[in-house]
Design brief:
Among the domains are: 230 residues, no CATH class; 48 residues, no CATH class. 34% of the residues lie in helices and 20% in strands. The protein has twelve helices and 18 strands. A seven-stranded mixed sheet has the order 1-7-8-9-10-12-11, with no helix packed on it. It is α+β, with helices and mostly antiparallel strands. The radius of gyration is 37 Å and the shape is flat.
């Protein structure tokens, strides 16, 4: 792994030494791991059963890797998060609208899910922020998701959290001539320098050429806000790089699941249908008739019966299910068994209890991706000359459905207890309080929404202005009934 004390140019002995471990290049090792996990995601896995000529292929691929990645990504980003600069203000500010437009122009929810996809497979996310390209009609800075196979980070040997520089490498082949490039993003503590190198094939060490790498371009980035933002997918306290969703043992576990599934599939193909067996006779004594392909056998002692499997392979099925559940448990992913009807009477708390492991992992992912997206937003805002203080809070959408009746009942109870304001509840429910308040005031003046006037003209006073209540005689008798034993001055 490349911890180091200071910046060294490409091709220098110090840089070559620190990037090589036991004869293997660090970036090459991580690239091979990423390729292997990605091939499993694509369903390119081992097969275990030989296929005979003119027979079907009994190998089965159960892609647990894809199940875990797709569900993790969808759980983290069911929708694009809200970017809030002032949570106390319900109205969207101009800067908040600009941030929303910035991310939408760069891919929105598709970009967010791409970030989580790459992070799930590689363990790390690298985002490069570039100025808007006016020649391409760009209105906003560019946010690019980098291929983890092309990026390597060098950090301080005394401080794992201090990045000294990022290296981005690539090659281009034209007319059978391959040129290699390295782009170093160097952090000097107060600003960043972006230096581009080209492999010219030279061997002499000059002021601009070291070990075949020639410095061809220099760019200054005059702020501490980074031009490349890196974050871990899952924590890895022992290393600068993060953890992916899988370990090598998990990929091996997926192979075992496929092996058992394939063997069960072959057994079913050979033995799912019963085999008819005849004993006490020879094949020449069996004659097929025209009546439903019935067999006629002359030997009276002959017996004909069906040979069926004595087991339903329940032990093998149980092992398959156990390994599948263990795979998902290691990745902290929940796949519900049953149907929606099974959850009709389950409370919101009950649903979250079922998903407790997945919610716990999602909290970690939200923190890592939220801080990363916050820094990307800050750097992009600086490029757009909005200053360095545009630091949004990333508010993720809830991935789980909720019972709206239960939520409304809780809100009504909180209002009854006078522990929350109408504005807070309105914002919590997703409404714009300022807009809703104006609409409610407007509705109050609509005649057809006003309550009906009380009977008798809406007052209890005489037309003459006297304050004496009027009686309402019916058939000449007063409505006031005298109770037995009582007195009345009426």
């Amino acid at each position: 792994m490349p911890p180091i004390d200071k910046y060294y140019p490409p091709g220098s002995p110090e840089r070559v030494r620190v990037t090589t471990t036991s004869g293997n290049d660090d970036l090459a090792l991580r690239s091979r791991w990423y390729d292997q996990v990605r091939s499993y995601y694509d369903g390119d896995m081992k097969t275990f059963l030989d296929q005979k000529e003119d027979e079907p292929d009994d190998n089965v691929i159960i892609n647990k890797v894809k199940q875990v990645v797709d569900r993790t990504v969808a759980f983290l980003f069911p929708a694009f998060p809200e970017l809030e600069l002032n949570p106390d203000i319900s109205d969207k500010t101009p800067d908040e609208q600009w941030l929303e437009d910035l991310w939408n122009e760069n891919g929105g929810i598709a970009l967010a899910q791409d970030m989580a996809y790459v992070g799930s497979l590689s363990g790390d996310v690298y985002m490069r922020i570039m100025p808007a390209d006016a020649s391409q009609g760009d209105e906003f800075p560019q946010i690019l998701l980098l291929d983890p196979k092309t990026v390597q980070t060098f950090w301080s040997a005394s401080n794992l959290k201090r990045t000294l520089w990022h290296e981005v490498s690539w090659s281009i082949t034209l007319n059978n001539v391959t040129k290699s490039y390295i782009l170093d993003f160097i952090n000097d503590g107060t600003s960043w320098r972006i230096w581009q190198y080209e492999n010219s094939g030279a061997t002499a060490i000059t002021s601009n050429t070291v070990g075949g790498w020639e410095l061809t371009e220099k760019t200054n980035w005059p702020t501490t806000l980074p031009p490349i933002v890196h974050w871990k997918h899952l924590p890895n306290p022992r290393n600068f790089y993060g953890n992916a969703e899988f370990t090598r043992s998990q990929l091996g576990l997926n192979d075992k699941i496929n092996l058992i599934g394939s063997e069960n599939n072959r057994i079913n193909r050979y033995h799912a249908s019963p085999k008819t067996v005849a004993t006490g006779t020879s094949a020449s004594e069996i004659e097929e008739t025209a009546i439903d392909e019935m067999w006629a056998i002359e030997a009276p002692e002959a017996k004909v019966y069906n040979l069926e499997m004595q087991s339903d392979m329940q032990a093998s099925i149980n092992q398959f299910n156990m390994l599948s559940q263990e795979f998902l448990a290691e990745s902290r992913v929940v796949i519900l068994q049953g149907t929606v009807k099974d959850f009709q009477r389950v409370t919101n708390a009950g649903v979250r209890t079922v998903f407790i492991d997945m919610l716990s992992k999602n909290s970690i992912l939200r923190w890592n991706y939220g801080k990363g997206m916050q820094m990307v937003s800050r750097t992009a805002a600086w490029l757009a000359k909005k200053g360095t203080d545009v630091k949004p809070t990333i508010v993720f959408a809830d991935p789980l459905p909720t019972d709206q009746t239960e939520t409304a009942n809780v809100a009504a109870l909180e209002r009854q207890m006078n522990i929350v304001s109408r504005q807070t509840l309105s914002v919590k429910r997703g409404y714009d309080w300022t807009e809703e308040k104006a609409k409610m005031a407007e509705e109050a003046n609509l005649e057809f929404l006003k309550p009906p006037a009380p009977a008798g003209g809406g007052n209890n006073t005489n037309p003459s202005g006297s304050n004496k209540p009027q009686s309402s005689p019916t058939n000449g008798a007063s409505r006031l009934q005298k109770e037995p034993g009582s007195t009345s001055n009426a």
